[in-house]
Amino acid sequence: MRLPHIKALQKQGRAFGIRAKNLLDRYAHITYAARVAVALGIGVFGVGTVYAFAGAENLGALRSALLAAVSGSVVIQENPIVLSGISVEGEVVSARELALSVHTGGVIEETLRVGDSVDADGVILRLDDTDMRRLVRSAEISLAAARLSARLNASAAVSALSLDSATRNEASAQLGIALIEGHQEITGILPLLPDVVSGLSGMLYGGGGFGDESDYLMAHAGTIEADNEAISPLIARAGDEYIKAKRAYESAFALFHREPNPSDSERERLIITTHEMLQTLGNAFDATEELFSFIKKHRGSFGYAAPSVFEIYEESLANYSAQVRDQESIVGGTRSLVEAARAVLSGEASIEVSSPESAALEIQRAELALEEAQARLAYYELHAPFAGTIARLDKRAAQYVDDGETVALLVASEENVHITLMQGEAARVNVGTRVLVSVEGTDISVPGVVKEMDAVGKKDEDGIVVFEATISFPKPDDRLKPGMQVIVGFEMGSAE
User: Fold this and answer.
1) Which of the four CATH numbers 2.60.120.260, 2.40.50.100, 3.20.20.370, 3.40.50.2300 does domain 97-127+382-411 have?
2) What are the pLDDT digits (tens) for 118-162?
């Protein structure tokens, strides 16, 4: 084999190497797959060179054919980005994520599922707002009553017997609506009360599903009374108020079931009876809470630990009492409107006449109460602050949530890439620098831009100064998913 032939092969190899390097530098933006194709081309050329060394007669033809094959394997993108040589790994993250909490407690009525998309201000979760809607209606009725009373006062100031027809017509309409809606309200309230009355009885006298029968309040109070007679009036009041409440409840319940289709007068009587019953039941809870507070304080003064059931008592008293007071407010508002309308229609305008200023103030108070109730009603829906996807849901339908409890994680529909740059790399990168983000092993290659970058470096766990940066995408690619590991190449000498 001749030496000149070997030298010719070496010369051809050097020439190809220089041309291949120039080709790679020129098309530095090509995808990973294209680089592999170039490398394979070079390998093929090496094999071809060995073949030529072994006896190929037309080395120039072989070289030209291989260069053509290599050049043809490179797919050039439109608007090529020439990379600077900086290439770092990064992770795809959601552009924004937010843990969402409810603003009031209640039972979940319906909710989206994990993976569901939601628009900005879309409903993610809805709580059962039945009771709250009753409160809103009560506030509406109270406002109507205040306005009707204002008109009544204006008419009564002239003459108790000369009420204008418009006032009478308005009173008649308001009375009819109040009686019907009042009966509907009571239909929803009374079935809830057996558990309330039973719970109060269980706390005072045992039973009611509260566990240890020996830990009821009257038993503790009796033990304390032997040493401290100050508790005696509290025992008597709690017992008396409970008996009154139980009797009032039984009377209201019997009246409610007596006539399936009550007349207006029967509805009015039921509204008044139910309101008085709820007031009595509220007084019973107040007396029980006072007794419970004394018992806890007395035991604490002797260093006695509270029985575990006391925590249940405390929570139950707060919940039952709030429920009863809300219901009392609802029925009380209806009763006020009924009585005001009845006074107009009966010609009994000799009621106390307030000044126009006082009437206007009552209307203003009623308007504010209605606005507050409507605002509270809005809390029963959890809305998305931005468009995104439900990434996590901690509660399901029919479950109870507490006020302020976190229930979901919402992630934005767009993605960013987080990267870490060494200080030498950071010196060559600015906010606005364009990049090319690719996922190894795929054909994903997405242009992006440096959105944010640390102005001051920080040392990592190895003591090396690094800079955090965030990449955003002018044209997002749905194939990029949070959690993906990507390669970020930086454009040379260009920023938006």
Assistant:
1) 2.40.50.100
2) 999 999 999 999 888 878 877 887 787 778 777 766 655 544 445
Residue type, 128: D
CB 397 within 8 A of CB 109: yes
Whole-number Å distance between alpha carbons of 380 and 378: 5
Residue 35: name the closest of 487, 483, 391 by CA. 487
Q: Judge contact between 81 and 493, C-beta under 8 A.
A: no
Residues in the chain: 496
Which residues, 6+ apart, have CB-to-CB distance to 21 below 8 Å? none
Output the CA torsion 357→363→364→368 (10° steps): 160
- For residue 170, the SS3 value is helix
3-state SS, residue 416: strand
For the domain spanning 414-495, the CATH number is 2.40.30.170
At position 50, the amino acid (one-letter code) is V
Task: Tell me if 377 sits within 8 A of 132, measured CB to CB.
Answer: yes
Q: Taking the model in full, what pTM does it have?
A: 0.53
- Residue 235 · residue 218 · CB < 8 Å: yes
